[in-house]
């Protein structure tokens, strides 16, 4: 069966191969161009060979397929006897496969085919730009080619035109395939004349030309940073500069645009000034109207022309520092005087119109009546003593040139006037600024202004005080320049005609944010990385969790104690009987075991040493008169007791203090005739008393419950077993060895 299938498959394969061979030798297909412009018409012809086995002696027709779909019959035609054609009016697909087929009836066999590509002309080059390198003097032009077709080569050509001495110069450069830039040599362009530049892209379907670029090559140059060679202060408030271009560009002598940028150094004004110029290299530059006695840092930059859209500024030069000529400080100082009895604290700072006009300022505080210099300092504050009759002090600033005019500071000794409302609000604005708002003052007082002072609370030693003066119509202000994430103490003082009011003091914080680092549990100090005042949750958790666990254990123990009272009592404080106050009702009852810790398993009773055992028969007429039972009572005969008594008592006590040589361990008392009680032989129950026994190392003590005969032989007796009722010689020997036990002999054991 397998061989039949193999023969069938081979037959089908050979048959198909024969048809393909026959079809391949049947026709020739032709088209004018394999790549055409998209949207243009396409014609294809198919010529059937005379010896084609598919048509020989057969009635056939020719059909066309476009991308495996039969083409409409109106697009095909017959050119000659065995040549057929196809016309596609507009080819839009980028890749189209056209096939020629020979059909007999409905059975068609493809005999040949061709692929036609629809493509576009090259895109227009965009963003053409050119720049001049003044060091190499090469003129670089580059452009954006747009979306190129990988299977269609595109070539570029750069054209440059210029007019020099009424002569038109034209240069053309063919760009290698794949390149989109070109370096134009120096001889192909003028440096200071206008040129026109464009780029043309060409492929087999067409060409495209960019917009024409019109410019002066030098205005596209990027200059190196210039050099400031020297600065002179030859007049009050003026500076003169000498400068030059970079070393590789010093061959240029034309006028160019430049800018000077001046910044004050270590000056409160911190102003920046930019001065434009159009000068030839090595010319002098003069800048005036500057602050007197002020250090200025100056930098410089240049470009070809400030009016050209192609020119670009160079980088700024290295800074140079110079100072203007000094003169006496001008303007006034803002002051804040705090007086407490004769102790005065004076703070000051430059006002908006103050000019230092120099450097290394120092300040002098003095009084006129009496004429006295109170302090001289370079700081912005001064502390001094002030006598009662001084009503004003005077402050002046001095530099190396001269001193300023005096700033008058009135002395206010009345400080008990009204205060502003302490319902002040603090609104953080940023990490370094806060807004302070405060309420009004009593309407009966005339407020002339406010003083707002503040200082950091986290600095050690204490931070210097800062202040600002405000108009009486102002009820809020923004404090700037604060240190991030630090608390500040802020006080608002109202000022009156004759004194200073009571301040309102509050604590302000700038905006805080989340910690940038995790806190360390072992530290108690604040760190700068926390960016604010931290309230960490770990400390609370370390306190709450152990407290909850301890409370839960306490509740559990209390409920366990109440629920298992008896069991807890037996485990913690078991009842131990007192031998001196114990009574034995029945030795076999379980009542005697109450209050004792339970045993996990029953064990054989442990043999116990007894040092002394005594039996007493008491008469009702002779009660105990003392705690000690005398020796003559031990020998009282049991038969003389009253037979009407049916119970007996046991008294256990320790007589170690009275008799050191012989310590009775237990004493049995009978209040009735012992022999009148009949019961079964009692089982042995070991004593639960904690009374100390004789030492085990005593050489005279016998082994547990053993009878030692005078002859050295030992006869063992079971623990407290009843003696046989019939007297024998062996029993008599036992009684002789244990005379004290003889009184315990029971002849009638019906019941006890």
UniProtKB/TrEMBL annotation:
Residues 1-23 form the signal peptide. One of its GO terms (cellular component) is plasma membrane. Residues 419-514 form the Fibronectin type-III domain. Keywords: Glycoprotein, Immunoglobulin domain, Membrane, Receptor, Repeat, Signal, Transmembrane, Transmembrane helix. InterPro entries: FN3_dom, FN3_sf, Ig-like_dom_sf, Ig-like_fold, IgC2-like_lig-bd, Type1_Cytokine_Rcpt_Type2. It is found in: Membrane. Belongs to the type I cytokine receptor family. Type 2 subfamily. This is Colony stimulating factor 3 receptor (granulocyte). It comes from Cyprinus carpio.
């Amino acid at each position: 069966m397998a061989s039949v299938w193999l023969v069938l498959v081979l037959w089908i394969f050979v048959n198909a191969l024969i048809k393909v061979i026959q079809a391949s030798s049947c026709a020739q297909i032709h088209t004018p161009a394999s790549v055409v412009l998209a949207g243009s018409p396409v014609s294809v012809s198919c010529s059937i060979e005379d010896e084609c086995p598919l048509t020989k002696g057969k009635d056939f027709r020719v059909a066309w397929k476009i991308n495996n779909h039969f083409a409409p019959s109106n697009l095909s035609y017959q050119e000659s006897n065995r040549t057929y054609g196809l016309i596609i009016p507009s080819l839009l697909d980028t890749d189209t496969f056209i096939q020629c087929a020979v059909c007999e009836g409905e059975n068609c066999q493809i005999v040949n085919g061709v692929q036609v590509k629809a493509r576009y002309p090259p895109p227009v080059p965009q963003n053409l730009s050119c720049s001049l390198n003044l060091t190499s003097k090469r003129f670089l032009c580059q452009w954006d080619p747009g979306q190129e077709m990988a299977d269609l080569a595109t070539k570029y050509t750069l054209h440059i035109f210029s007019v020099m001495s009424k002569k038109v110069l034209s240069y053309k450069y063919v760009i290698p395939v794949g390149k989109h830039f070109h370096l134009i040599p120096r001889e192909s362009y003028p440096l200071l004349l206008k040129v026109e530049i464009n780029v043309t892209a060409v492929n087999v379907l067409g060409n495209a030309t960019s917009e024409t670029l019109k410019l002066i090559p030098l205005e596209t140059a990027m200059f190196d940073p210039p050099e400031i060679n020297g600065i002179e202060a030859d007049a009050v408030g003026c500076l003169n500069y000498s400068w030059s271009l970079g070393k590789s560009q010093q061959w240029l002598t034309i006028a160019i645009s430049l800018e000077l940028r001046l910044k004050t150094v270590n000056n409160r004004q911190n102003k920046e000034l930019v001065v434009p110029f159009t000068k030839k290299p090595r010319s002098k530059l003069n800048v005036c109207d500057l602050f007197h006695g002020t250090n200025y840092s100056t930098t410089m930059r240049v470009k070809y022309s400030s009016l050209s859209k192609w020119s670009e500024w160079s980088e700024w030069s290295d800074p140079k520092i110079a100072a203007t000529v000094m003169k006496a400080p001008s303007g006034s100082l803002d002051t804040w005087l705090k007086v407490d009895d004769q102790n005065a604290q004076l703070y000051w700072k430059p006002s908006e119109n103050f000019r230092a006009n120099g450097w290394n300022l120092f300040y002098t505080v003095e009084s006129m009546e009496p004429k006295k210099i109170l302090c001289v300092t370079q700081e912005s504050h001064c502390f001094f003593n002030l006598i009662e009759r001084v009503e004003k002090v005077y402050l002046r600033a001095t530099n190396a040139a001269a001193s300023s005019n005096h700033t008058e500071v009135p002395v206010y000794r009345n400080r008990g006037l009204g205060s502003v409302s302490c319902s002040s609000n603090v609104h953080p604005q940023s990490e370094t600024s806060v807004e302070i708002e405060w309420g009004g003052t009593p309407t009966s007082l005339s407020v002339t202004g406010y003083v707002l002072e503040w200082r950091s609370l986290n600095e050690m030693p204490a931070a210097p005080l800062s202040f600002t003066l405000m108009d009486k119509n102002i009820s809020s202000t923004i404090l700037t320049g604060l240190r991030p994430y630090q608390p500040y103490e802020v006080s608002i003082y109202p000022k009156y005609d004759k004194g200073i009011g009571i301040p309102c003091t509050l604590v302000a914080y700038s905006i805080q944010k989340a910690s940038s680092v995790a806190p360390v549990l072992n530290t108690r100090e604040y760190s700068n990385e926390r960016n604010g005042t931290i309230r960490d949750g770990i400390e609370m958790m370390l306190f709450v969790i152990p407290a909850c666990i301890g409370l839960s254990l306490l509740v559990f123990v209390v409920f366990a104690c109440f629920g298992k009272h008896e069991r807890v009592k037996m485990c913690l404080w078991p009842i131990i009987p007192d031998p001196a106050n114990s009574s034995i009702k029945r030795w076999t009852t379980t009542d005697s075991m109450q209050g004792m810790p339970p045993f996990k398993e029953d064990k054989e009773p442990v043999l116990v040493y007894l040092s002394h055992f005594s039996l007493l028969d008491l008469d009702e007429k002779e009660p105990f008169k003392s705690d000690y039972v005398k020796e003559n009572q031990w020998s009282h005969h049991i038969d003389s007791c009253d037979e009407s008594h049916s119970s007996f008592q046991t008294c256990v006590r320790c007589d170690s203090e009275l008799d050191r040589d012989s310590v009775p361990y237990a004493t049995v008392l009978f209040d009735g005739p012992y022999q009148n009680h009949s019961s079964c032989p009692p089982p042995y129950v070991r004593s639960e008393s904690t009374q100390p026994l004789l030492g085990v190392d005593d050489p005279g003590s016998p082994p547990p419950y053993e009878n030692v005969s005078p002859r050295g032989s030992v006869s063992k007796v079971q623990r407290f077993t009843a003696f046989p009722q019939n007297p024998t010689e062996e029993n008599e020997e036992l009684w002789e060895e244990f005379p004290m036990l003889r009184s315990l002999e029971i002849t009638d054991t019906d019941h006890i």
